[in-house]
Structure formats: structure tokens, C-alpha cells
Amino acid sequence: xxxxxxRGSDALAAESVKMSxxxxxxxxxxxxxxxxxHDLLKDMMRxxxxxxFQQRQLQQTLRxxxxxxxxxxxxxxxxxxxxxxxxxxxxxxxxxxxxSGGVRSKNTMEAMGAFEKPEYVPVxxxxxxxxxxxxxxxxxxxxxxxxxVASRKVIVDMESPPPPPDRFEELQNEIEDRQRFLQEMVxxxxxxxxxxxxxxxxxxxVREMELIDKKRSxxxxxxxxxxxxxxxxxxxxxx
Length: 239
What we know:
single chain, mainly alpha, two-stranded antiparallel sheet, 8 helices, 53% helix, disordered N terminus, UPF0193, UPF0193 protein EVG1-like
């Protein structure tokens, strides 16, 4: 603000002040500001970007020899009218000397709404669950609440997956397929081309069948030996 800068330059302004007239208690001397003070104030007002009205007010204060204000004057000469306080009206007091009582007639009371019934407002009901409704229905019908019957779980028997195909039978079917294929090739005159290939494949399949048969024979032999041991133990116990 411009007045901060002005307060910081009090020493310079004080040197340019001259007293005129004779002073006294009831007659204060008029302050006359020097040209240097006027120029300094113009520079400060220009730097502070004061409005034309504000600059005119400050220059008038310098010419009149008055004290510089600590706050910037308003930007307009219009004075805001003071708002008048709205006085709340005093409560009306009945004067018992003027007030005349009496019995009201029926028509007067009807006109005042004394016989009107208030509008019915239904009470908001509580939403009941399905189980609560069933319980109330049972009490109304049977006089007591029926216990809830537990639902039975139906167990569905899953079909057991089919057993895996027998590898020995698969090999046997593959051999038969190759033999039929070779017969078809012989019928069309291509038997010599496919006979060595089919013979090699059938030989490999037969070899795998022999291994399976050997394994099964060993397992069968173990089962026979175990059964023979159990039979001997049983015969010894009886004797």
C-alpha cells in the first residue's frame, strides 16, 4: 500500500515541512508541505496505481495542510447511506378494559374449524419377512407356529465311469485292421508295396501283446501261489 511507503519516508517529509502562523492551544499552526514532498507523494501515488479521485483527495489534503491519512480514501465521492435498523413491532397486548369476552356461537366455532377432524395418517408398517408371514399364518390357522420342515437333500448317484479299455484287446483289433487293409491292397494289385510295412507293424503289435501276456501270467502265478498258501494255512488250522 502507498501509506506504508509513505511512513517509511517520514524523515524526508519532515525536513520539507514549514510552520506558518502563530500557534496556540486553540489555534493550531497550519502545516505547509514543500514541493519536494508534493513530488514525492505524486510518485508514490503513481506507483501505487491510485484512482484519480484518490489522488485528488490526497492533493487536497496537502494543500489544506492537513495530516496525511493512514488509509486510502474511498474510490468514489458517493457516501453510502446508513441502513436504518428495522425495529421489530412490539407484541400486541390485549387491554382487558377494551377486550370483551363472551360465549362463542356454534357457527363461529365451525368457522374457526373447531369441529374439523385431523387428517388420518396411516402408521408406516414394518416389512415382514416370508418366514414371519408363515408364522403368523400358522398361528391364525392352527393356534401355534409349525416348525419349519428341513428340506431333504436328494443325493444323485453318479454313474461310475466305464473301465479303461483292455490294451490286449486293442492290440488284437489293430492287428485285424491291418490284415484287412493288406487284403484290400492285394485285391487292387498293391499288395507287394504294403506287405512289408504291414508285416513290421503287426510284428511290433504282437511283441507288445507278448509283454502284456507275460506280465499277466506273472500276476496270475502270484495269485495262484497266494491262494495255495492260504489253503495250506487253513488246512493246518483244521488239523
